[in-house]
Amino acid sequence: MKHLGALFIGMFFGIVLIKAEVISWFRTQEMFWFQGFYMYGVIGSAISVGAISILITHVTQL
Amino acid sequence: MNDIINFISQPWPWYVAGPMIGLTIPLLLILLNKPFGISSTMQTTCAIFLPRCIEYFNLNWKERGWNLIFAIGVIGGGFIAVTVFPDPNNVQISNETISKLSELGINDVSGLLPREIFSWDNLNSPVTIIMVIVGGGLVGFGTRYANGCTSGHAIMGLSLFNLASLVAVIGFFIGGLIVSWFVLPIILSVL
C-alpha cells in the first residue's frame, strides 16, 4: 500500500505517453526524418516544465 | 462525465502533451521524493530473478519496489488510455512522412505501430525472432550502460542541466538518425 502513490503517478504517465503520441512509431519516424515539429515541441516543453518545476522545488525547499 | 472523456480523448497538441510529460517529474519528486526514470526497472527485475549471478544485479531490490509499481502503473495507464480515451483517427503525421513510409512499403499508418512490421504473424521466421530478441537486448543493455533511457536522461537529466545526460541524449539522437535513415530501409527490405 505504501507504493500506491507510485502506482497512480505511473498510471498518469502511461495515459500521457499514449495520448501525447510519443510512443507512436510514426511520430518517431517523422521526428528522425525532420518532417514535423510535433515531437520537438513535446520534448522541448516537457524539459522546460521539468526544469522550471525542479528550480521551484529547490528555491522553496519542498 | 462524457464531455470530460471526449475532451481527453481528442488528439493533444504538443503544448499540452509536453507539459503533461514534464509534470511527471514534480509529481514524483514532491509526492514521493523519487527521481524520474524507467529503465532502472530492468536492473530491479534482473535483481529479483537473477540474484547474485552478476554483481550489477546484486542489490536490495525491495528498496526499489516503487520503481516496479510505477512501471506497472504505466502499463495500466496505457491500457486505460486506449480503452477509456480512444482516438479513432490516425496519428496526424505529415504527408511527407506518409509518402516516405509508403516508399518503404508501409501503407497502413493506423494505430500507434505499423501492423505491417509489428504483428504476431511476422514472428514466423528466425530472422524476425532474432531481430526482436537482439533489439530488446540492445535496448536493455544500452539504457543501463548509459545509466538511463529517454525518461531518465532526456526528461529528468536535461531538466537538471546534467552534462552527462546531454551527451547521452545526443548519442540517442545520432543512433536514431542512423537507424531511421540507413538501417530501417534494409530491415524493411528483408521483412
Blueprint of the fold:
The complex is a heterodimer of chains A (62) and B (191).
Chain A: H1 4-19, H2 25-32, H3 38-60
Chain B: H1 2-9, H2 14-32, H3 40-49, H4 65-83, H5 95-103, H6 126-145, H7 150-159, H8 163-190
Structural description of this entry:
The complex is a heterodimer of chains A (62) and B (191). Chain A is an all-alpha fold and 62 residues long. Helices cover 76% and strands 0% of the residues of chain A. Chain A has a domain at 25-62. The two termini of chain A are 24 Å apart. By secondary structure, chain B is an all-alpha fold. Chain B has 2 domains: 1-86, no CATH class; 119-191. Chain B contains 8 helices and no strands. Chain B starts with a helix and ends with a helix. The mean pLDDT of chain B is 89. At the A-B interface, α1, α2 and α3 of A face α2, α4, α5, α7 and α8 of B.
Low-confidence stretches of chain A: none
Radius of gyration of chain B: 19 Å
Strand content of chain B: under 5%
Give the percentage of residues in beta strands of chain A: under 5%
